[in-house]
Design goal:
Strand content: 15-25%
Oligomer: single chain
Largest sheet: 7 strands, parallel
């Protein structure tokens, strides 16, 4: 089969792929845009396209499989894919994101860098027994997870291991006695009960702006907002307004503006989140680890092998017609 990896992100999953395929296939990497005639022909003739973005303007496809090496597929125009093409996504990032979240939360209770810097100057502020250096514990906090998919479930596991009380809001029924479950329609009610509200949901028509002014207003004073899902699930204007007054704080990893061909170094929002001292910002890095890449490469290889054998594909997000 002819396999095309479309773009820089997709090309990350080429190393180690061939060794996992049951048959040798023709593999080609093409750029995100500005395709040569040869690249355009390769894309059009490919049996499998691996990529994270596709629009009709990229050129017609004849692929049997459009394989995303990512969970989110909001940048792929499913209607522009051939009717006979199956689209599948890949996960494998939940462990990495959980580690990011736990590290971020622990840093609020265990100030290692601050204590180190102080003791280097002879300042014993955090010395056990001192009344001023008493720390809080993560296990004392209540965690509200929006979305109970791969990421949400892994976060709940980690949070419960630290003794946190966990609430989840999900569209479908959550049958887990260890957590307090809410429907998405009860998101405001859940927000009023938690210290930390984290979004793990992907971007879709029914999730855009889901966490808005009403939800943010329900959070307790001193509450923390986190986003490791998609940026626009939390309303951009409402979030900035809620944070600039200082009542809430935030740790944000997913955004509203990303690098593009015309601007490689944009600020991540139309609002100056970077000027707020109560906000920690990171560049959509939470799930990007060697482990994630290895697990997703394995998923891509498995689906190519399944396609070759005529077997059912994994993680189907668009069926063939």
């Amino acid at each position: 089969m002819k396999i095309v990896f479309h773009g820089a992100n997709a090309s990350t999953f080429v190393p180690g792929l061939a060794e996992q395929l049951v048959m040798p296939h023709e593999i080609r990497v093409i750029p995100d845009s500005g395709l040569s005639d040869e690249d355009a022909a390769a894309l059009a003739e490919a049996d499998v396209v691996v990529g994270v973005h596709y629009a009709a303007s990229d050129g017609a496809l004849s692929a049997k499989l459009y394989q995303l090496p990512s969970a989110g597929y909001d940048k792929v125009d499913m209607d522009a894919l051939p009717a006979s093409c199956v689209a599948c996504n890949a996960f494998g990032h939940e462990s990495a994101i959980a580690e990011y979240v736990i590290a971020a939360l622990l840093s609020r209770h265990v100030p290692l860098q601050e204590a180190d810097a102080q003791l280097r100057k002879g300042d014993w502020h955090y010395w056990a027994g001192g009344p001023d250096g008493v720390r809080t514990e993560m296990g004392q906090e209540t965690f509200g997870i929006v979305g109970y998919g791969h990421i949400g479930k892994m976060l709940a596991e980690r949070a419960l291991a630290f003794g946190m009380t966990v609430h989840v809001a999900n569209r479908s029924l959550v049958n887990d006695p260890r957590v307090s479950a809410h429907g998405l329609e009860a998101l405001e009610e859940m927000a009023s009960k938690v210290d930390i509200l984290i979004n793990t949901l992907p971007l879709a028509e029914n999730t855009t702006g889901l966490i808005g002014e009403g939800v943010l207003e329900k959070l307790r004073d001193g509450g923390l907002v986190m986003n490791v899902g998609r940026g626009p699930v939390i309303d951009e204007d409402a979030l900035f307004e809620a944070l600039k007054g200082g009542r809430l704080s935030a740790i944000l990893d997913t955004w509203y503006i990303y690098p593009s061909a015309t601007d490689a170094h944009p600020m991540p929002s139309k609002h100056p989140f970077q000027t707020l001292k109560n906000v920690t910002i990171t560049p959509h890095m939470s799930g990007w680890t060697t482990g994630t890449i290895a697990r997703r490469t394995a998923t891509v290889a498995q689906n190519i092998n399944r396609l070759w054998r005529g077997e059912a594909l994994m993680n189907v997000v668009k069926v063939a017609k």
